[in-house]
């Protein structure tokens, strides 16, 4: 703790000086953090054992109205300068972006011996290992509860609450935008593009929605959760990532009639590959979720994570996946943890539950040998022989069919929908069947394959 | 850390000595803890920064086969003696019972400067404040994650994950036995007594099920959660507690037809009473839960807790509420926390998030002024004029009726069921209506009132 005038303002309760923070990035989350530390100041001081005090703030545009009074706080035009301030114990990075100013600030904060709290999933997914290693070397805390699943304390749940368990599988709904779009398509029967536009208008989707709808945001979060759950180094690059933009209203109707809803699911599992090599399987993709699964009732911009531990059994964490209030709640929870413990250095090695050098380098597990049931949707020309061609390919690839539904006209160009649900087969067999069908004049466009989420 | 021969066995990773525990009580949970620390030993050592090692065990019957090999561990006939052992850092109390040997052991452990980990909800509900105060004075940790909701890290979720929030309401399903009975009655249409017998045969209910079915166990847990959520002293005595034994198969059918299931819900809310006095309302009672509520899909012996924070919004924690594996998972999570931090004394004041002297004495809030919709079920004699009598009493008490259903014959003595759902009214008005009907020859037995869980 640096010795400054602030130390005069000791907490009446504990005699400890306030925890002093610098806040970089004053978007909705940054403004939310300021509102929260002001609104709940007394309660936070009681729980943290000392007040949490904003010393300085920084953002691109000083003049912008953010609905909060910034005049009590020092303003820094150069956010990196905050890392060097004597009146700052923790730098809160809410700028966003995997590299650039956020990363420069994060590194500088740690190098100056400040604790780092961030909501930046992209930065942690790409640079989390390097940052955690620097934080360990400096003996400062690095925390990122707000980077995954908004206000849900799932990182704490994994890192501490489920710490006694070997995690067998982890899966969840990690992107509120996709979940809002899919559950709205389900409720209204409308098409993807239309619902996306509406989500953009309502502020549930960004103007450039690529990171969300292509599954990249969920993959960032999944790779962070995987590292903690499996004691492995973050491996964002190995997440098999598919988005939701190819899903048709007809897929949702079809799934519904079979007893499923469609959700973008991130799933991670320790998996001995076909040759027995231990590895880690990570995937973000739309899945068919049986109505009796815990995740089937997660609608709107909600997030939910299921952790299957070898002693705990199945744990579900659910709540708001984004928004200023929930995200600020997670940021300030991290600050309270640091306020409770930072003088002792206790927090320093805890970013990923295990010090970085103790995290395993787990090889990415391939998907081909994985057994599962799949939903395969074809758009086909409406002419005789198409079904025979498809079912022959399935037979030749060893894919056993549980049900096949051919529906009437689906699109203006006269294509019709054929949807197949397979029995449990290796994913490679499904891939082989599609290879056999490649180039067939019967098919209109690429088939869409979605796995059915297993119990 | 006491200086003993064990310090020679340093953890290769951190150089820290093992955390040494004494285990009192070797029922299913105690045996589960031993299985867990053995099965996941490597992983626990990686996450805790040092091994967790059982030094001594104690139980009533040394000879009993518990499916685990106890020979590596010192046996104490007198469990209290474990508190004084030099080779013990933490006493794990799994004996049960609010007083008696469990309490003697807990006090002795703390007085000897040992950390205390317990799964004993009754002891914490009755003596948690006194024990936490002694633990603070001694500077030792006291933890009880396993006392509430089995393997679900909900105490951690409240105390740390949601720490930044003013909790507005907390509610949940806190007793797996009741939830199993109610969801089985729902699935099978059978009566309470029959399903209870089956639950006893399957081991989901005790031979003496009173604590479970009368809501006392859930009230223990609720009072513990309330203290943490609202920063208040535990006040188990003020929990308005009703059980599930009066619920008929017909109530469940009736609720179902109206769009509700019936669940035993513990609910706590900071509540300014009718005169504006701040207070804490705590109740355990069967409620009608709308099908679209998060808790309506919680079936079988599962527990679930919803925390509504003023910034986080609604957080849901769900999982197995009992059983050896889940409960052991919570016990060992507490041990890992202590292993990570106990050398620093950081854990000492954290039992209830705020030191005991900082917890508020919140007055119990009365129920009468609380607004809600209620389900009132009468058993009535099948004769003319009964409905007029009931509806007149409702009118005179100011209770507005949303729906009234009279069903055919319900019991062998010719009584029929009349079920009323009220509009939103003060609870006192419902009570007054029932007072007006008291002693009426039309009524067979006491009416049953259940509140409808509000959004």
TrEMBL record, chains A, B:
Keyword Oxidoreductase: yes
Keywords: Amino-acid biosynthesis, Methionine biosynthesis, NADP, Oxidoreductase, Threonine biosynthesis
Stated name of the protein: Homoserine dehydrogenase
Organism encoding this protein: Novosphingobium sediminicola
GO molecular function: homoserine dehydrogenase activity; NADP binding
Binding site for L-homoserine: 206
Enzyme Commission code: 1.1.1.3
Domain of life per record: Bacteria
ACT domain sequence ranges: 375-451
Binding annotation for NADPH: 121
Protein family per UniProt: Belongs to the homoserine dehydrogenase family.
NCBIfam families per the UniProt record, alphabetical: PRK06349.1
Residues annotated as binding NADP(+): 24-31
Alphabetical list of CDD domains matching this protein: ACT_HSDH-Hom (cd04881)
């Amino acid at each position: 703790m640096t010795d400054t005038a602030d130390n005069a303002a000791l907490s009446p309760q504990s005699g400890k000086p306030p925890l002093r923070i610098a806040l970089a990035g004053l978007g909705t989350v940054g403004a939310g953090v300021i509102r929260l530390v002001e609104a709940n100041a007394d309660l936070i001081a009681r729980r943290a054992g000392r007040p949490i005090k904003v010393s300085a703030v920084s953002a691109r545009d000083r003049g912008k109205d953010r609905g909060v009074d910034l005049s009590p706080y020092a303003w820094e035009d150069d956010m990196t300068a905050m890392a060097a301030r004597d009146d700052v114990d923790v730098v809160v990075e809410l700028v966003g972006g995997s590299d650039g100013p956020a990363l420069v600030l994060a590194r500088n904060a740690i190098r100056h011996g400040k604790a780092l709290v961030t909501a930046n999933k992209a930065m942690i997914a790409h640079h989390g290992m390097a940052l955690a290693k620097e934080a360990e070397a400096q003996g400062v805390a690095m925390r990122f509860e707000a980077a995954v699943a908004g206000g849900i304390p799932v990182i704490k749940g994994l890192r501490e609450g489920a710490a006694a368990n070997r995690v067998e599988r982890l899966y969840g709904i990690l992107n509120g935008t996709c979940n809002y779009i899919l559950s709205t398509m389900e409720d209204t029967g409308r098409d993807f593009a239309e619902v996306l536009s509406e989500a953009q208008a309502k502020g549930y989707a960004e103007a450039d929605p690529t990171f969300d709808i292509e599954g990249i945001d969920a993959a960032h979060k999944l790779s962070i959760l995987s590292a903690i759950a499996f004691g492995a180094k973050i491996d964002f690059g190995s997440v098999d990532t598919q988005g939701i933009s190819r899903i048709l209203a007809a897929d949702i109707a079809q799934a519904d009639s079979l007893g499923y809803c469609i959700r973008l699911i991130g799933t991670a599992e320790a998996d001995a590959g076909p040759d027995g090599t231990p590895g880690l399987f990570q995937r973000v993709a739309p899945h068919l979720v049986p109505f009796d699964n815990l995740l089937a009732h997660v609608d709107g911009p909600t997030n939910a994570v299921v952790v299957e531990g070898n002693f705990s059994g199945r744990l579900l964490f659910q709540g708001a996946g984004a928004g200023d209030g929930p995200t600020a709640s997670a940021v300030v929870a991290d600050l309270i943890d640091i306020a409770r413990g930072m003088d002792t250095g206790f927090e320093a090695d805890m970013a990923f539950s295990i010090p970085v050098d103790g995290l395993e380098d787990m090889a990415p597990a391939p998907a081909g040998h994985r057994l599962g049931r799949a939903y395969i949707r074809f758009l086909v020309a409406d002419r005789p022989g198409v079904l025979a061609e498809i079912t022959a390919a399935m037979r030749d690839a060893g894919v056993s069919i549980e049900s096949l539904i051919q529906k009437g006209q689906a699109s203006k160009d006269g294509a019709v929908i054929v949807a197949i649900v397979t029995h449990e087969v290796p994913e490679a067999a499904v891939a082989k069947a599609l290879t056999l069908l490649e180039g067939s004049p019967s098919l209109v466009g690429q088939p869409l394959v979605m796995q059915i989420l297993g119990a």
